[in-house]
Design a protein that fits this description.
This protein is of the alpha/beta class. The chain has 10 helices and 11 strands. The protein has helices spanning 2-22, 41-47, 61-64, 87-99, 118-127, 140-148, 178-184, 197-206, 236-239, 266-270; strands at 25-30, 52-55, 72-75, 103-108, 133-135, 161-165, 187-191, 214-219, 227-232, 249-253, 275-276. The structure holds S-adenosylmethionine (SAM).
Length: 282
């Protein structure tokens, strides 16, 4: 009796494994900020099984090398200032691939649910009757915090973290209640803010932020080209100017950043320190 139950269980497991092997699916997968070591185990496993991978431009080649041999890789990336694929085109490509019934990954930098336009892709798939599954990734703000060795929240100092985009639908700075933002306190993480940084800093200071509030720019976080500038909100636009046309850059602003593990102090940075650095490898 016991062995027949075990045999049934085995048959069922084989059936499940076999049917899963041939079933199609669509996953929106977070690739993290760059370093492939920061992928989740689930992301790595799925990359090894996908037939088609539609990926952003800023994906490390070592991450793409985890795809199975023969997988179709399509760069549907969008880079600010360069020729980009429109979101509607990406949705159309994604739906066309999903309709083939294969295993599809839409691979996105960082976390798909943070400034990744995941909602539009999930809706487009839902409209053709396909449910997207999501695998989270490490978002840039937390990767930068880790690289700095500083916490974005700090007891008694920073009780909130605000994720902001510096890039509105019309390409300019998006509307924001700056006074409410400054009054709320906490740490501000700005994505896609390179072009709008001077305006953004002016708004924050005019809304009452102390111009000496610590601010950090990190370019190409976790990549070999990673560079950091430590400044204040008053000096950041001038000091971070060299970053504006290079790699992706994230800005962090707030009192929680006053002490970081880093060797460069805020006052040194105010004199214009620019530190190219190689991210530590375990
Ligand atoms: C379209 S948003 C995507 C954000 C992504 N979904 C995430 O969770 O990090 C792109 C912006 O993320 C930031 N970013 C992405 N990767 C980065 C990196 N390795 N270093 C610094 N900033 C990065 C930059 O601000 C860039 O303009």
């Amino acid at each position: 009796m016991q062995s027949s139950i075990q045999a049934d269980k085995l048959v069922l497991e084989v059936l499940v494994a076999t049917s899963d092997e041939h079933a199609g699916w669509v996953y929106l997968v977070g690739a993290g900020p760059g370093d492939p070591d920061l992928l989740t185990i689930k992301a790595q496993r799925l990359l090894g099984r996908a037939d088609v991978v539609l990926h952003d431009s800023l994906i490390d080649p070592r991450t793409l090398a985890l795809c199975k041999p023969g997988a179709k890789l399509v760069d549907v990336g969008k880079r600010s200032g360069k020729r980009s694929t429109k979101q509607t085109e990406i949705n159309a490509i994604l739906c066309a691939e999903a309709r083939t019934g294969q295993k599809i990954i839409r691979l996105k930098g960082g976390d798909p649910m943070i400034f990744g336009r995941a909602a539009e892709e999930i809706e487009a798939l839902a409209a053709i009757g396909i449910t997207a599954q999501i695998v989270p990734g490490i978002t840039t703000a937390t990767a930068v915090a880790a690289a700095l060795g500083t916490s974005l929240t700090k007891r008694g100092v920073a009780r909130a973290v605000h994720f902001l985009t510096g890039h509105g639908a019309d390409g300019g700075l998006p509307p924001q209640d700056w006074v409410a933002l400054v009054r709320a306190g906490g740490t501000i993480a700005i994505y896609m803010g390179s072009q709008s940084l001077p305006g953004l800093a002016t708004h924050l200071i005019e809304a009452g932020m102390d111009p000496t509030t610590p601010a950090i720019a990190m370019e190409s976080a976790t990549w070999a080209e990673q560079r950091t500038i430590r400044a204040t909100i008053g000096t950041l636009p001038r000091l971070a100017a060299p970053f504006r046309s290079a790699g992706p850059c994230l800005f962090l602003i707030g009192e929680a950043l006053r002490t970081t593990q880093a060797h460069t102090t805020i006052s040194q940075a105010d004199q214009g320190t620019l530190s190219p650095e190689t991210p530590a490898r375990a």
